[in-house]
User: Fold these one by one.
Assistant:
Number 1:
Amino acid sequence: MIDQTQIKEALDIYVAQTGIINILWNIFLAASLAILGYVYKDRTLMDDWKIKLGLTIGFPLFAYANYTAILRAQRILFAAATYLNGVPDAGDPSFNQILKSHTAPSVRDIRKAHFLFTLLVLIVMWLPNIAKSFVSRKKRNSTRNAA
């Protein structure tokens, strides 16, 4: 016999963890956009390597704290989804289909996505400096070749 109370509790946990994860991702995305907006706000900030160095150190610290919170919630969400998918069929087939439709990405997938997004933000932050260095190096080489 299926324990309806456990199913309800698993559904409540699933919904709560989904909400927590959405909030944590939204905070991470907002902070990422705020940092990039701050850096790209004007030319002096874009070229100030001291500010960028501070953000390059501070942002990964924030990202790591956010990452650990997301992974903790994701583990619970994944366990709840696994439980709901393992509930034996009983009663109304459409309800069984609802229970089986609860899914969650693996913790490993979330770990990869968070790391790649953090890395992307750091690269985009330094992209103007990288491009400027590349262009100046190219100009120096073309000046040497012309002489």
Number 2:
Amino acid sequence: MPEPRAAAREKSHDGQFAALDRMATEQGQKHNLDATKLQACIKAQQDDKVKTSVHEGEALGVEATPTMFVNGEQVDGALSLSELRAILDRALVQAGETPPAHPAPAPASTSQPGSR
């Protein structure tokens, strides 16, 4: 018998998948799609690979989208280009490689009052 937390998580995921199906149906109606064909498509979904991926992510401690792993370091959430470069450069150094040179950031355009 699955542990209570796992069962609750599974029920939560099922609710999330059902909510996505409802949203797809609403969008289909909004855009005048053939409701019968859309429902057939929704019912024919094979979500086993998605569920497997979700379970694998949970086992790894993934709690955000996007999440990346760089040399075993978990990196959660969206990053700026400079933050991502720093993480990748650090991984290269740890692997004994020299990080590439990065182009200088483009200067922010500043307009003077009254200039066009």
Number 3:
Amino acid sequence: MPKFRLLNVLSYVVHKCDHQCVVKAEEYFLSKQTQINPFLLPFDCNWSIVDSKPRGYRTPCLRTLYSLDEIEQYLYQTQSNLSIKCFIDGVLTRFKPLLDNYDPQFVVIDDLSNGLDNVRIPVFNDLDRDTPDKFTYITKIRPIDHRLAAAFNDTNTTSCCDCTDK
């Protein structure tokens, strides 16, 4: 049974949350943060989901938080290494990848981004050993022609495209 499910049965002891609430849970945070899905980072730092109405997150010190505002306040109060961007409030969000049990023989590229992104992007092909065509992987938006370049570099807030309404 995963550790985050076990935490749901433990009771919260009332206290003033501070950095001590997260320091042990985040002991190996920096080494993990580039290796897993960012939405899984809280669970790797002893957070858990409380499946109730409303749905909430349980902190490493077992406090239950029901909104992103409460989570953000907790992260600030405890000086956590986690970002609010690692938390979601949608009940339909999948935390596990769709390809949970894959055969590693079908990985044709280990990391599509070649280390440019924080999370490894493997490429799977279970039909043949073909790989994607050559391309340049970028992490920032780049203009592709002179009109886009001009709009991209324009600091005037009224700039727009050269389209005409009909």
